[in-house]
Amino acid sequence: MAEQLIKQKPVYTLLQITKYYLKLGTWGFGGPVALVGYMHRDLVEDKGWLTDEEYKEGLALAQLAPGPLAAQLGIYIGFVHYGLVGATLTGLAFILPSFIMVVLLGMAYQLYGGLAWMQAVFYGVGAAVIGIIGMSAYKLTIKSISKFEPSAMRSKWLLWLFYSVGIAITVITQKEEILLFLTCGILYMLIKAPPQWLKRPAVLPVSVLISTGFWKYDGKTLQEMGLFFLKAGAFVFGSGLAIVPFLHGGVVKEFGWLNEHQFVDSVAVAMITPGPVVITVGFIGYLVAGFPGACVAALATFLPCYLFTVALAPSFKKIAKNVSIKAFVEGITASVIGALVGSVIIIGLRSITDIPTALIAIAAVLGLVYIKKLQEPYIIGIAAVIGLLIKAI
């Protein structure tokens, strides 16, 4: 129950924590890892609003359950001392600034996207985004599966198999395969940590089917978007960039709402705005169906994150120790990251069209590797200038 989490009177008010997340959502650049680091520095080390134990429990939940890492941690922190109201306010405060920004950028994109200077900007930006996503996929791989060392890869061979299958299936089908992710999660759980009810077959297990909560009508774009983005939001583990293969498969391939260049531009917009990377769905929604589309896409994507957090938080300590659940998540994560790599290959083949774009993508990767304090928005800005200069020559 929520009361179990409220062990002592908080040293901060609900207004203070809400204002903090409003500020973080406005100025928090750097992606999920950086945002999670800011929260520890500010809330644990500087302000002392949370204990290190409370923070680590929230981080563990954010990694275990589906949902963008930083947004889910923020929702959990709001829940710790202020329950459902705290979770709702911190979540909204964190997401709202970047949502407003991407809607404004969507308006500008609709107005000026056909102009030569805007095309030149995204010529450079699109190439840089491929490099950034590629680097993120590499970091996710070594963090979630293992390092590229023979001994480590042998010990995690099954996860590497799921990872490779995820790459291959995504490249071949050019869309997300949710059944593949679920299959990998179930197989890894059964092999590594079979649940107790399997060891006691006389006991009938109770399966819980999670419904999307939306229904589909032919010709109803908003309802189609709601269903699609709800499904995508329910299968984002860890980094917000893990949603890229879902979005690409549905937005470009299945529904044809955007073309390849528009999709890459959408990811670029998420890179240059603060807050969660997943907010790119707001930009995509705006391009597809204006402001209502942006609202539906953002709400549907973040709703699973919110529901999972408030549902699991009260009993999380018990859930976190369940080795079967951990194995299930590990199996899904391996195949999802493989799908992300597959999406990078697909998008890269269409976005890297000449030598300059290839050089920009490589430079973006090298910049992230060798310049430690270089953040993605700076790379995007530099790439935009380079694109303008190349097209002006």
What does this 3D model show about the protein?
The chain is an all-alpha fold. The protein has one domain (about 100-390). Helix content is about 75%, strand content about 0%. The chain is built from 18 helices and 2 strands. It has helices at about 1-5, 15-25, 30-45, 50-65, 70-110, 115-145, 150-155, 155-175, 180-190, 195-200, 220-235, 245-255, 260-270, 280-310, 315-320, 325-350, 355-370, 375-390; strands at about 65-70, 235-240. It has a two-stranded parallel sheet with strand order 1-2. Helix 2 (about 15-25) packs across helix 5 (about 70-110) and helix 6 (about 115-145) packs across helix 17. The longest helix is centred in the first third of the chain and has 44 residues, at about 70-110. It starts with a helix and ends with a helix. The relative contact order is 0.18. Residues about 1-5 and about 200-220 have low confidence and may be disordered.
